[in-house]
């Protein structure tokens, strides 16, 4: 099968991460002839989602393959539950549909339901009016994906979890702030969203480089309100400057009221679905897909009169293209400019728990923005997703933590985990204030999100995921790369709906003879 | 069962490259056939309304978009499938042999709740051609051995049995669906569109 892979393409894309996939779709959409490869057997690269089995393989790979260690290190996995549950503990689990007792989970039960887990390597949210949502809609790629709204934004205030009032309805409904504070908060939020550029300029001209916190204090906000705006709405820290604070708050507020009560959407089955949506569009427009296809060698050749091609050796094939788009995780080192890029690595953790961090009527989907604790410099972003997102079996929640790395992932994140989970193991059914952590993994990820220069004009290196909450930088970079490859062309114009496509009639002569099917005659031809 | 609410069925078509998946879909939905498809280009998904008993059913039929050619269909393609059509070419025995692995692949990737009773249909396509190499008997035997999967011999080119096969697909999927409704696995999902009409009813979310 491999051998009939065509050898000449206008664009070859290596790696199926977010940026690579968007570029592939954009090129194919406007008629470029695209080949899209990935060295592994699944889509997404550093942006992939794994089921529990896939995740175990990933962990094994990280621990054994030195090449993987460049991307992921300090990985530690831990179980807080038994390998198997003794029979009597299971007995209470009957067919009785009224209030079934909480399932007692074991490692074996995780393994049995491994397919129901979709755990993201790069969990991210979409702002409802952010660039990715707009792109999905305008390109019509949205038809390949489904989403759920984040139902609440929480923060950590006075040693407990507190919902952040972010919409007008929330502000009025909340009991945690006084009438006077409500008025202050509304005024503040309205000013950030409603003011014109000029008014903004006037308002902030003396503040831009100063701390956002000082501005909020200057405006007379109470400490509680400052906390909400600074940490939860702007997602900042004490050091955040006013320009960034206003920009981030505006982004948050502008996305309210489109799909739900918060500004955020979460992709069903996880962020790893999104690259696949772009890949499908690429394929629909003729892009050729080949997973499990590592590349061995990349050469840059000048053909004549300044025209150059990229020649790729992959297994026994030689592939030629005018442009190579390659993910940072697939890219041979000699293609990258050796200049070091400044970056902070990322501390990440994933937890599987037996309940939500804060109970609610319907299954919640939560963004928790932890302010820095214990004198840390940066806050921690926490995402809690439940079975309704297709992330895990019923009765469980998957919780992600993401922060800038200071020491190592476990040291950086454990203090936050301990505040919201019971990490002690033990009886899963004992009444407890906090959900039990059943399984966890901590790891550091190399931040490869800085743009990297390649050594040739027609080789375009795509960055890896950043620590940010959204996909905005990936979309932006993909568009930049596309514009370099296809100058003057439209970036992902709307794809027609299937019913708008008119199939040509000319090749339809219709039946020219009647024929009955007689199996017996044909049997002799078998095999 | 008496519910008259509209039902949307996601149907996916699988099988080796060149067995006629796109043509079958196009024959069923658009009543058209073209010899010119080399590999699948522009084929995405097509929708068609059919009536099964007294219910209106919208079938959304998803093509592989050619990603099956080098075994590169991603798991996203399989999500939420209500039924699966497996196609082989009666003139190409290898495509018949592949059915087993396509079925397995589907069950692994889509991981339906009840794999033993998941609605599959097998289509032996291109019966209009003379160089037939897989007999109906052999195909039927295989289908029987797999929990009695319905089998149809089709010709996308001459529109033989295409309508009937898809009707059966819809009917069988619907029989499953009534049970699935009870589970209603993931309600309230959001589809993005320009009109923002998914807006939550819970009142005024505008911050200004």
From TrEMBL, chain A:
Comp. bias intervals (Acidic residues): 498-507, 517-527
Xref: InterPro entries: FAD/NAD-bd_sf, GDP_dissociation_inhibitor, Rab_escort
Renumbered residue ranges of the record's region Disordered: 492-527
Primary localization class, coarse: cytoplasm
Keywords annotated in UniProt: Cytoplasm, GTPase activation
GO CC terms: cytosol; nucleus; Rab-protein geranylgeranyltransferase complex
Localization per Swiss-Prot or TrEMBL: Cytoplasm
Pfam families, A to Z: GDI
Function: Substrate-binding subunit (component A) of the Rab geranylgeranyltransferase (GGTase) complex. Binds unprenylated Rab proteins and presents the substrate peptide to the catalytic component B. The component A is thought to be regenerated by transferring its prenylated Rab back to the donor membrane.
PANTHER family, alphabetized: CHM, RAB ESCORT PROTEIN 1 (PTHR11787:SF4), RAB GDP-DISSOCIATION INHIBITOR (PTHR11787)
Similarity annotation: Belongs to the Rab GDI family.
Name the record gives this protein: Rab proteins geranylgeranyltransferase component A
UniProt source species: Leptosia nina
UniProtKB/TrEMBL annotation, chain B:
Gene Ontology terms, MF aspect: GTP binding; GTPase activity
PROSITE patterns: RAB, RAS, RHO
Manganese among keywords: no
Keywords (A to Z) from UniProt: GTP-binding, Lipoprotein, Nucleotide-binding, Prenylation
Domain of life: Eukaryota
GO CC annotation: late endosome membrane; lysosome; phagocytic vesicle
GO biological process, one term: endosome to lysosome transport
Cell compartment(s), UniProt: Late endosome membrane
Family to which this protein belongs: Belongs to the small GTPase superfamily. Rab family.
Protein name: Rab7
């Amino acid at each position: 099968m491999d051998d009939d892979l065509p050898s000449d393409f206008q664009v070859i894309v290596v790696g199926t991460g977010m940026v690579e996939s968007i570029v592939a779709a954009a090129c194919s959409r406007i008629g470029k002839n695209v080949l899209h490869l990935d060295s592994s057997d699944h889509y997404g690269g550093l942006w992939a989602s794994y089921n529990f089995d896939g995740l175990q393989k990933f962990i094994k790979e990280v621990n054994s393959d030195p090449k993987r260690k460049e991307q992921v290190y300090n990985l530690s996995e831990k179980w807080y539950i038994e390998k198997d549950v003794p029979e009597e503990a299971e007995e209470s689990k009957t067919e009785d549909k009224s209030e079934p007792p909480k399932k007692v989970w074991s490692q074996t039960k995780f393994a049995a339901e491994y397919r129901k887990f979709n755990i993201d390597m790069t969990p991210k949210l979409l702002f409802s009016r952010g660039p990715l949502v707009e792109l999905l809609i305008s390109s019509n790629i949205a038809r390949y994906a489904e989403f759920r709204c984040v139902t609440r934004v929480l923060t950590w205030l006075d040693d407990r979890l507190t919902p952040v009032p972010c919409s007008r309805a929330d502000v009025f409904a909340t009991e945690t702030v006084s009438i006077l504070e409500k008025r202050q908060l509304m005024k503040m939020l309205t000013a950030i969203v409603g003011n014109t550029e000029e008014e903004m300029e006037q308002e902030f001209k003396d503040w831009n480089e100063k701390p956002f916190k000082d501005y909020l204090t200057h405006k007379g906000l109470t400490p509680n309100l400052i906390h909400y705006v600074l940490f939860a709405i702007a997602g900042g820290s004490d050091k955040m400057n006013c320009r960034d604070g206003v920009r981030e708050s505006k982004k948050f507020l502008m996305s309210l009221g489109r799909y739900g009560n918060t500004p955020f959407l979460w992709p069903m089955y996880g962020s790893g679905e999104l690259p696949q949506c772009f890949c499908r569009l690429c394929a629909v427009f003729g892009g050729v897909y080949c997973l499990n296809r590592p590349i061995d060698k990349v050469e840059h050749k000048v053909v004549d009169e300044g025209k150059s091609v990229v020649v790729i050796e992959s297994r026994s094939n030689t592939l030629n293209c005018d442009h190579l788009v390659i993910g940072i995780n697939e890219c041979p080192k000699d293609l990258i400019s050796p200049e070091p890029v400044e970056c902070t690595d990322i501390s990440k953790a994933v937890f599987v728990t037996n309940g939500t961090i804060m109970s609610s009527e319907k299954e919640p989907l939560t963004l928790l923005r932890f302010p820095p604790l214990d004198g840390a410099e940066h806050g921690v972003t926490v995402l809690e997703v439940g079975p309704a997102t297709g992330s895990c079996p019923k009765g469980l929640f998957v919780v992600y933590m993401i922060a800038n790395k200071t020491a190592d992932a476990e040291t950086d994140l454990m203090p936050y985990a301990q505040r919201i989970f019971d990490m002690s193991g033990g009886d899963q059914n004992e009444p407890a204030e906090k959900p039990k952590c059943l399984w966890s993994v901590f790891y550091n990820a190399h931040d490869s999100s800085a743009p990297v220069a390649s050594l040739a004009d027609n080789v375009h290196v795509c960055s890896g995921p950043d620590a940010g909450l959204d996909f905005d930088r990936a979309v932006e970079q993909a568009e930049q790369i596309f514009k370099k490859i296809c100058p003057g062309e439209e970036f992902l114009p709307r794809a027609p709906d299937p019913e708008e496509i008119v199939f040509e009639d000319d090749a339809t002569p219709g039946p020219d003879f009647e024929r009955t099917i007689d199996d017996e005659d044909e049997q002799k031809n078998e095999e | 069962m008496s519910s008259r609410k509209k039902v949307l069925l996601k149907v996916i078509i699988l099988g080796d490259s060149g067995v006629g998946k796109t043509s079958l879909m196009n024959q069923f939905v658009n009543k058209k056939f073209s010899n010119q498809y080399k590999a699948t280009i522009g084929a995405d998904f097509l929708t068609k309304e059919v009536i099964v008993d007294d219910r209106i059913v919208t079938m959304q039929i998803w093509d592989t978009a050619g990603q099956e050619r080098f075994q590169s269909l991603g798991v996203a393609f399989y999500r939420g499938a209500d039924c699966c059509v497996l196609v082989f070419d009666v003139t190409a025995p290898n495509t018949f042999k592949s059915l087993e692995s396509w079925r397995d692949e589907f069950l692994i990737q889509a991981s339906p709740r009840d794999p033993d009773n998941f609605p599959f249909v097998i289509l032996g396509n291109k019966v209009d051609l003379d160089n037939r190499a897989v007999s109906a008997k052999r195909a039927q035997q295989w289908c029987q051995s797999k929990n009695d999967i319905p089998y149809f011999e089709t010709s996308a080119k001459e529109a033989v049995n295409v309508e009937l096969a898809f009707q059966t697909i819809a009917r069988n999927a619907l029989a499953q669906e009534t049970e699935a409704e009870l589970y209603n696995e993931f309600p309230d999902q959001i589809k993005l569109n320009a009109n923002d009409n998914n807006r939550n009813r819970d009142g005024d979310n505008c911050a200004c």
